[in-house]
Amino acid sequence: MTQVNSCLKWLLTIFNIIFAIVGVIIIMIGMESQLSYANGALALDVHTFRKPELYIVGSIIMVIAILGAVGAYNESKACMILFLVCMILGSIVMLLLGSLTAVIRSKLPAVLEAAYRPALPLDRTLYDMRNQMERLQTKMECCGLFSFEDWEGNIPRSCLCSKLWGTCQEVHNKGSQLPKMSVHAKACVPIIEEESLMLADVYVGVFFTLAVLGLLGMVLSSIMIHQLRNPSRPVAVLMSVPAYFNQPPPRYEELQNIVPSTN
């Protein structure tokens, strides 16, 4: 086995363990997160990544991390070269995905506006669409797509709000015998937009964090490959010790000659 710097070896091994943990976290995010609260009702079509993609990304990261950890621990040149190639390609892909997600995030409010505005007014929509909208309002505790006025006064019971549990407002409802109704103050589309932007921010953060980790992995793996190819030659700056640290301490006689005499 070729002798390499032990600190570099363990640093790269620990790095890949952390990298594998990141992959596990991404898989967990894919299990827990989704872009829409609707669970199929008014499903959002403008999403960047769904859960299957997160599973794939997390699994690939774990495989690459295991490859790097095994290559670093066993000082395998082939594994480290393959790991370096994966780091280069992975960093490029993560930068592209992060940039693409950032662009999609900036256009998301306009896309939501264009997607839901044609459905107005809600009291004149198709029966199935109305039922989906009422289920959405019940689940998300909202009223209307953009405002309670989307119902044009024919406000359904799914908009009703209890002052003990939610933020309510008093509105007039011409479709009811009651002169006033207490409905949810928030509309549904702003809530969907807020949660979608937050999830997009998570994706952007994950992609750019992975890109930075990839760059770090590239540096560490390049140094180790250099040592595996040139075991007797230290790596400049990072692995070599400055010459003045290797000099022996001055002897007592030399110090005594330097100190000026008091006579």
Brief synopsis:
With 263 residues, this protein is mostly helical. It has 7 helices and 2 strands; from the N terminus they run ααααββααα.
Can you put this structure into words, describing what you see?
Residues 34-49 and 235-245 have low confidence and may be disordered. The relative contact order is 0.15. A hairpin with a 7-residue loop joins strand 1 (168-172) and strand 2 (180-184). The chain is built from seven helices and two strands. 60% of the residues lie in helices and 4% in strands. It has two domains: 6-117 and 199-242; 123-189, Cd81 Antigen, Extracellular Domain, Chain: A, CATH 1.10.1450. It has 263 residues and is mainly alpha-helical.
